[in-house]
């Protein structure tokens, strides 16, 4: 399609302006994180700190045990990641590569759970975990991912599995392969990119989760980064320099993971077949 | 359609034996592979759902020894106006949804169109627009609290510099909800990417046909882009509505319901009732009200979708 020069220029300019607007909060975050308070309050604002106060990071880490929060977050994220990947690929296999009576109906019922607001299951789930003695542990945050790994992930993987020709399986069946061998030797290797997408979304979802840790964790020593950041804000609400340094430390891993896996992200959203 | 001999024998075999050996095996393994997911659904969705419905009919409170079945009393209390915070939080949330949903859909739609143009640096632009959506809500809320700080924040500094009136943003009774909407617009990237995926499915030849007819960009938008994207608009609208009704992290960190309960978002109010006031029976009733409201919206949009969503290959 030919697009006129004028139109391209107008489009480019608009995008440029909007992109600047999207970047400014990041710049503001970064520059505030390496300034001391007196620099922060200078008017008109400085964009490039002079000098850089990298010790903000060290100070933020000492007033609040962010190292421990980081470790807690990693344990939870790793647990959820393994559970989700194993569990959702197995379920998606059962919902796409094996033809059994009632399959699509069962899948439809599971899909309906996607519409249910989390608030409805929140209170009984909390009471249940508490009853089992798992309040203030990581289990309520990790264990559910081993049971299906979330219907959205199953849906995404199922879409992908269904696009792989059935001939592969049939050939394997002729050779006497079991369903598990087909899953392990054929489907998993073929769907590597889809699995990576699920892993990336899961990483971010778990890393960013706020409500879960807020409800299930009580002791400071078990807090996650998201929760720790919020606690930090409560006690140092005017210390914008330290607050921004702590925020940067929480944001950075996400941004890195995204930039590394970017190619898969965009693929993944197309994968869900939401083109209509 | 004619039945072949093979079909007939197969049908016969099926009638004779309920399941063939192969079908039995498939059923067994199908259930085995999906068992964790089905179990998860029963334990973490259906079970809690029923429990929540029951709780909503009781006066369950963690710190009280006895719990009574009180029928619909919780719901009567909600709707009778005895709890004025209920209507307040409902109003706040509706206002937020009405403001946010059109803003998200319209802005992300046009951003997607821009990002779909054959521009220099297109992939860089895409990255920049998408990036904020992966920032944890806690951190992005922190950044916005700082940007919107009435005295020292960047937004008011910029407004002053431009000699425009400043705002109290999250601290003003009138400006708090639009401000929260603004902060969430930063994370619009996911919706934009879904629109982009939709746009990539529109055949270029359709636009060329308009070129031949001498139509401009407006007729392309009106007669091709919008109609072809109605399924994506439909999907994004439903997802944005469901998400907007349930906003929590932002509510918790940005405002805690303030000022003067002007940003008492529904799920925040629910959380406060359940976990701070420990009125879990009453909070369960709140949860069911939210569920029903979201259901009504979703069903309504599904029903009207027949008249405005066009699927390819239909007709």
TrEMBL record, chain A:
<dbReference type="GO" id="GO:0055085">
    <property type="term" value="P:transmembrane transport"/>
</dbReference>
<keyword id="KW-0762">Sugar transport</keyword>
<dbReference type="Pfam" id="PF00528">
    <property type="entry name" value="BPD_transp_1"/>
</dbReference>
<comment type="similarity">
    <text>Belongs to the binding-protein-dependent transport system permease family.</text>
</comment>
<keyword id="KW-0812">Transmembrane</keyword>
<keyword id="KW-1133">Transmembrane helix</keyword>
<feature type="transmembrane region" description="Helical">
    <location>
        <begin position="74"/>
        <end position="95"/>
    </location>
</feature>
<feature type="transmembrane region" description="Helical">
    <location>
        <begin position="182"/>
        <end position="204"/>
    </location>
</feature>
<keyword id="KW-1003">Cell membrane</keyword>
<feature type="transmembrane region" description="Helical">
    <location>
        <begin position="242"/>
        <end position="261"/>
    </location>
</feature>
<keyword id="KW-0813">Transport</keyword>
<feature type="transmembrane region" description="Helical">
    <location>
        <begin position="12"/>
        <end position="30"/>
    </location>
</feature>
<dbReference type="InterPro" id="IPR000515">
    <property type="entry name" value="MetI-like"/>
</dbReference>
<dbReference type="GO" id="GO:0005886">
    <property type="term" value="C:plasma membrane"/>
</dbReference>
<protein>
    <submittedName>
        <fullName>Multiple sugar transport system permease protein</fullName>
    </submittedName>
</protein>
<feature type="transmembrane region" description="Helical">
    <location>
        <begin position="107"/>
        <end position="129"/>
    </location>
</feature>
<feature type="transmembrane region" description="Helical">
    <location>
        <begin position="141"/>
        <end position="161"/>
    </location>
</feature>
<keyword id="KW-0472">Membrane</keyword>
<feature type="domain" description="ABC transmembrane type-1">
    <location>
        <begin position="70"/>
        <end position="261"/>
    </location>
</feature>
<dbReference type="InterPro" id="IPR035906">
    <property type="entry name" value="MetI-like_sf"/>
</dbReference>
Automatic annotation (TrEMBL), chain B:
<feature type="transmembrane region" description="Helical">
    <location>
        <begin position="228"/>
        <end position="248"/>
    </location>
</feature>
<keyword id="KW-0472">Membrane</keyword>
<dbReference type="Pfam" id="PF00528">
    <property type="entry name" value="BPD_transp_1"/>
</dbReference>
<dbReference type="GO" id="GO:0005886">
    <property type="term" value="C:plasma membrane"/>
</dbReference>
<keyword id="KW-0762">Sugar transport</keyword>
<feature type="transmembrane region" description="Helical">
    <location>
        <begin position="27"/>
        <end position="55"/>
    </location>
</feature>
<keyword id="KW-1133">Transmembrane helix</keyword>
<feature type="transmembrane region" description="Helical">
    <location>
        <begin position="280"/>
        <end position="302"/>
    </location>
</feature>
<keyword id="KW-1003">Cell membrane</keyword>
<dbReference type="InterPro" id="IPR035906">
    <property type="entry name" value="MetI-like_sf"/>
</dbReference>
<keyword id="KW-0813">Transport</keyword>
<feature type="transmembrane region" description="Helical">
    <location>
        <begin position="176"/>
        <end position="199"/>
    </location>
</feature>
<feature type="transmembrane region" description="Helical">
    <location>
        <begin position="127"/>
        <end position="147"/>
    </location>
</feature>
<feature type="domain" description="ABC transmembrane type-1">
    <location>
        <begin position="90"/>
        <end position="301"/>
    </location>
</feature>
<dbReference type="InterPro" id="IPR000515">
    <property type="entry name" value="MetI-like"/>
</dbReference>
<dbReference type="GO" id="GO:0055085">
    <property type="term" value="P:transmembrane transport"/>
</dbReference>
<feature type="transmembrane region" description="Helical">
    <location>
        <begin position="94"/>
        <end position="115"/>
    </location>
</feature>
<protein>
    <submittedName>
        <fullName>Multiple sugar transport system permease protein</fullName>
    </submittedName>
</protein>
<comment type="similarity">
    <text>Belongs to the binding-protein-dependent transport system permease family.</text>
</comment>
<dbReference type="InterPro" id="IPR051393">
    <property type="entry name" value="ABC_transporter_permease"/>
</dbReference>
<keyword id="KW-0812">Transmembrane</keyword>
């Amino acid at each position: 399609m030919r697009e006129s020069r004028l139109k391209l220029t107008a489009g480019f300019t608009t995008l440029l302006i909007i992109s600047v607007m999207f970047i400014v909060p990041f710049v503001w975050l970064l520059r505030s994180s390496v300034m001391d308070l007196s620099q922060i309050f200078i008017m008109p604002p400085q964009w490039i700190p002079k000098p850089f106060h990298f010790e903000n990071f060290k100070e933020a880490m000492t007033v609040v045990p962010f190292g421990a929060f980081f470790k807690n977050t990693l344990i939870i994220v790793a647990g959820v990641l393994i559970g989700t990947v194993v569990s959702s690929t197995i379920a998606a296999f059962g919902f796409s590569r094996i033809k059994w009576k009632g399959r699509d109906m069962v899948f439809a019922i599971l899909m309906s759970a996607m519409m249910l607001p989390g608030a409805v299951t929140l209170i009984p789930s909390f009471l249940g975990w508490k009853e089992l003695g798992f309040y203030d542990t990581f289990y309520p945050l990790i264990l559910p991912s081993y049971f299906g790994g979330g219907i959205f992930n199953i849906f995404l993987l199922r879409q992908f599995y269904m696009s792989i020709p059935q001939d592969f399986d049939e050939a394997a069946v002729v050779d006497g392969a079991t369903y598990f061998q087909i899953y392990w030797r054929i489907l998993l290797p073929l769907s590597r990119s889809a699995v990576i997408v699920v892993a990336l979304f899961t990483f971010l979802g778990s890393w960013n989760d706020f409500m879960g840790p807020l409800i299930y964790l009580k002791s400071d020593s078990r807090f996650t980064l998201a929760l720790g950041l919020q606690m930090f804000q409560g006690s140092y609400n005017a210390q914008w320099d330290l607050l921004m340094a702590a925020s940067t430390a929480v944001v950075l891993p996400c941004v890195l993971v995204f930039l590394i896996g970017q190619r898969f992200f965009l693929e993944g959203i197309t994968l869900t077949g939401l083109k209509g | 359609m004619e039945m072949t001999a093979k079909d007939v024998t197969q049908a016969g075999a099926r009638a004779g034996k309920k399941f063939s050996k192969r079908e039995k095996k498939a059923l067994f393994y199908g259930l085995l592979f999906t068992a964790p997911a089905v179990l998860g659904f029963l334990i973490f969705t259906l079970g809690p759902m029923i429990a929540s419905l029951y709780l909503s009919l009781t006066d369950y409170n963690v710190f009280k020894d006895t719990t009574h079945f009180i029928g619909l009393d919780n719901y009567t209390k909600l709707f009778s106006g005895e709890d004025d915070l209920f209507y307040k939080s409902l109003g706040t949330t509706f206002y937020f949804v009405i403001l946010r949903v059109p803003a998200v859909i319209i802005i992300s739609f046009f951003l997607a169109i821009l990002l779909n143009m054959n521009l220099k640096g297109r992939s860089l632009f895409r990255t920049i627009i998408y990036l904020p959506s992966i920032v944890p809500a806690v951190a992005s809320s922190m950044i916005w609290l700082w940007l919107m700080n009435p005295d020292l924040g960047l937004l008011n500094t910029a407004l002053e510099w431009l000699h425009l009136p400043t705002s109290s943003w999250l601290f003003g009774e009138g400006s708090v909800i639009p401000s929260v909407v603004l902060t969430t617009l930063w994370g619009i990237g996911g919706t934009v990417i879904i629109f982009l995926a939709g746009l990539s499915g529109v055949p270029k030849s359709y636009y060329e046909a308009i070129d031949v007819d001498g139509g401009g960009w407006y007729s392309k938008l009106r007669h091709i882009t919008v109609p072809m994207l109605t399924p994506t608009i439909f999907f994004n609208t439903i997802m944005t509505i469901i998400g907007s009704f349930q906003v929590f992290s932002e509510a918790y960190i940005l405002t805690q319901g303030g000022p003067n309960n002007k940003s008492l978002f529904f799920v925040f109010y629910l959380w406060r009732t359940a976990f701070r006031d420990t009125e879990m029976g009453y909070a369960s009733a709140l949860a069911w009200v939210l569920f029903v409201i979201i259901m009504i919206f979703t069903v309504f949009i599904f029903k009207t979708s027949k008249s405005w969503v066009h699927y390819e290959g239909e007709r």
